[in-house]
Amino acid sequence: MDHSQHEHHHSGHEHMEHHDINQADYMSINKIMNEGINSTLRQAHGDHQGHDHASHGSMMAMTFHGGYAETILFSWWDVKEVGPFIGSFIAIFIMALLYEGLKYYRKHLLWKSYAGLQYCAVSPPDKGVQNICSPDEPQVIQPTMLSSAHAYQTVLHGLQVFISYMLMLVFMTYNTWLCVAVVMGSATGYFLFGWRESVVVDFTEHCH
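The chain above was modelled as a monomer; its predicted structure follows.
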């Protein structure tokens, strides 16, 4: 009977050790699973915060703001310091100034081409005045579509459109300093070139 009790006690001891091992394995597996779940939740929470921050940043970019940290037009034009930002301000100022100069340069070429047109006097037949033009001479000599002058104007027109939209996109950064650079450059350009303006209708105007 003692032997039977000893075997029963030994069997019970083994059962308890086996139960302890299973419980330890379960706790270890449960701990690993909890750590994995917590890590996934932290990562998802971080991604969500990053998405919210990016969305918040995008929303903030749609309102006027100051500061010098700005990405201007291109990914490589990424300004993070005051010095490069001042250089960018000057570059945009000069771009807006040259845009105004380009507008009035095109007008100057156009006025010059019109001034160079050859006219001849033509009078009605019942006036009895002899016409200066010969019958086979054109009354007005105009530039043609394939002329070099028109091709040059076309190139300048494309350059003017490109610069105008670049300035528009700079303004759409909503950075107040860059907006001031566009406005000041345009105003300075008008001050330097606009006094030559002698027509009311601005037929070479595009988006600013």
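The two ends are 107 Å apart (CA to CA).
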